[in-house]
Specification:
By secondary structure, the protein is of the alpha/beta class. It is built from twelve helices and six strands.
Length: 313
């Protein structure tokens, strides 16, 4: 099997007329074959370890995998509880994590999923929502890998929603705040950076997702701004839940924001940045990544990525 299988072909072959348990078994077997192919390409010391909800490919030691897989299982339940009515664990097969032994192997793998041209910010990990969703990262100390896992597993639990990148990333960093203690930090210097960087042009890159791939400080500021906006918007969780479930990447969530939160995205940003031209353009530039595609984590914030299992559409 290829390291990037044709999941559409596999989905057609498996079909959707089997029982839930049979579908779970079929997708788990296909997933295992795929991970064996990836493992054989990158080194004979790689192996696949299984827990109830996760398949982990790595060459880490047994204790590392035991601790990490237990953390993943607990974190999955905590995300589903914290984002009840938003996050979902539906689908067949297990969540997949790939841990590569170094940054070179990590980039060798992820470049298969990137466009042939373009500049992209460096990353310490990635959630790849392409075919069979999964997260990948280079080997990290367990203390670094665990909070990263919160972020990327959040992406996995949001993979069913066609939400804009800023909202997806904002929810992920808020979950880091809530579940891993990576709290939002704002001081006069950071606020000044925001005030200097954001204008009517750069805010459009935030709304369409491009700024999260920036090679300059825009990447870090984008994650920070997303954190601020989601934190402020989610104070009334029931209203916020309605917003998220109806938000679309096509208008960056504007229509749903007005409908469920009673304000525009212009108003939401204005509460932090003050008066300015902050509204998303009526016709957003087509994003590099739509509902399916990689979600980066910036090296600056030392985050990683985790994945989402296969769903049948």
């Amino acid at each position: 099997m290829s390291i990037k299988p044709d999941w559409n072909e596999i989905s057609l072959r498996i079909g959707d007329d089997l029982s839930h348990d049979d579908l779970q078994s079929k997708w788990t077997m296909e997933c295992h074959k795929w991970l064996q192919s990836v493992a054989s390409k990158f080194g004979e010391d790689y192996r696949i370890e299984e827990s109830v909800n996760f398949s982990i490919m790595s060459n880490e030691n047994d204790r590392y995998i035991k601790v990490f897989s237990s953390f993943l299982e607990r974190t999955l339940m905590r995300i589903l509880t914290s984002l009840n009515g938003i996050a979902s664990d539906e689908g067949f097969g297990k969540h997949v994590a790939m841990i590569f032994q170094d940054i070179e192997q990590y980039y060798e793998y992820v470049e298969v999923f990137l466009p042939d041209e373009g500049e992209f910010g460096l990353s310490s990990g990635m959630y790849i929502n392409d075919g069979y969703g999964h997260f990948v990262f280079p080997s990290q100390d367990i203390d670094i890998a665990e909070p990263i896992a919160v972020h990327e597993l959040t992406h996995a639990c949001l993979a069913h929603l066609p939400i804009p990148t800023w909202l997806n990333e904002g929810l992920a960093v808020v979950m880091e705040d809530v579940l891993a203690g990576n709290h939002l930090y704002l001081d006069k210097e950071i606020v000044a950076k925001h005030e200097k960087y954001w204008n009517r042009e750069t805010i459009q890159e935030f709304w369409n997702g491009d700024s999260f791939l920036a090679t300059d400080e825009g990447q870090e500021l984008s994650y920070n701004l997303a954190h601020i906006l989601v934190r402020n918007m989610s104070k009334d969780f029931e209203a916020f839940k309605g917003f998220v479930n109806k938000a679309s990447f096509e208008d960056s969530g504007e229509k749903s924001c007005i409908e469920h939160l009673g304000c525009s995205l212009q108003n939401v940003v204005e509460a932090f940045l003050g008066t300015g031209n902050w509204a998303p353009a009526k016709e957003l530039k087509k994003r590099i990544y739509g509902p399916k595609g990689p979600f980066y984590r910036t090296v600056i914030e030392s985050r990683v990525t985790i994945g989402k299992k296969q769903t049948i559409s």
